[in-house]
Amino acid sequence: MNIDLTGRRALVTGSTRGIGRAIAETLAGAGARVAVVGRDAGRAGEVANGIGRDAAGFACDVADIASVTSLVESVEKSFGQIDILVNNAGLTRDNILFRLKDDDWDAVLDANLRGAFVAIRAASRGMMKRRWGRIINIASIVGITGNKGQANYAASKAGLIGLTKSVAKELASRNILINAVAPGFIETDMTAAMTPEARDTLSGQIPLERLGTPNDVAAAVAFLASDLASYITGQVIVVDGGLVM
């Protein structure tokens, strides 16, 4: 069976590059109308134009409550409704515990966790009325395993997993399914800057012996957004090549 999202409207935060862009492109390729979201309105518009299929660009600072609330309202006004919400946007400010500043803790928790909470709260209202919705939160394997120098990031992603499970229980009776996808090491701008030796060492730790691609993550998201996953909620789908099995 093919994934068919024809007629669905999707909002994907942090979708102007990397994993988020791959998700937006994959959902659009399956027939969904997609709201591409980034901090820069011009960049979001460019990506949306490249996607086509009635995609549209929107600007949002996910760390700001008012900005996230306004985003949901704007997308609903433009698209008519939001059927699929993908909380992908986030940031990192890594440092060891004793050098981690309060502002760095707050910035990461605000963007990665509170932003997702606000988006879910706003978008789920319309989903509840229509008794249909799909929410996919992009977590991380470090939210499961922890990681040195990423106490703030790991805490935000672990919190996102807890949020996913709790809200999944609250909204299941309204046919709103909420799941998380936890990527492992994925090909990004950061990994592209690694030395060949460092990449080989990293790949050697992964049973599948390669880094993942943004499309690997996007495929899992598209599946969870579709009717093929209509009996799956409150789960964490780990996309990591077997690293933390």
Quick overview of this protein structure:
The protein is an alpha/beta fold. It contains nine helices and seven strands, in the order βαβαβαβαβααβαααβ.
Task: Explain how this protein is built.
The chain has helices at residues 18-29, 41-51, 65-79, 102-130, 142-145, 151-171, 189-192, 196-204, 214-225, and strands at residues 9-12, 33-38, 56-59, 84-87, 133-138, 176-183, 236-239. It is 48% helix and 15% strand. It is globular, with a radius of gyration of 17 Å. Strand 1 (9-12), helix 1 (18-29) and strand 2 form a beta-alpha-beta unit. The model has no long low-confidence stretch (mean pLDDT 96). The protein has a seven-stranded parallel beta sheet, sandwiched between helices. By secondary structure, the chain is an alpha/beta fold.
Question: What does the secondary structure layout of this molecule look like, with pairings?
Answer:
Elements: E1 9-12, H1 18-29, E2 33-38, H2 41-51, E3 56-59, H3 65-79, E4 84-87, H4 102-130, E5 133-138, H5 142-145, H6 151-171, E6 176-183, H7 189-192, H8 196-204, H9 214-225, E7 236-239
Parallel strand pairs: 1-2, 1-4, 2-3, 4-5, 5-6, 6-7
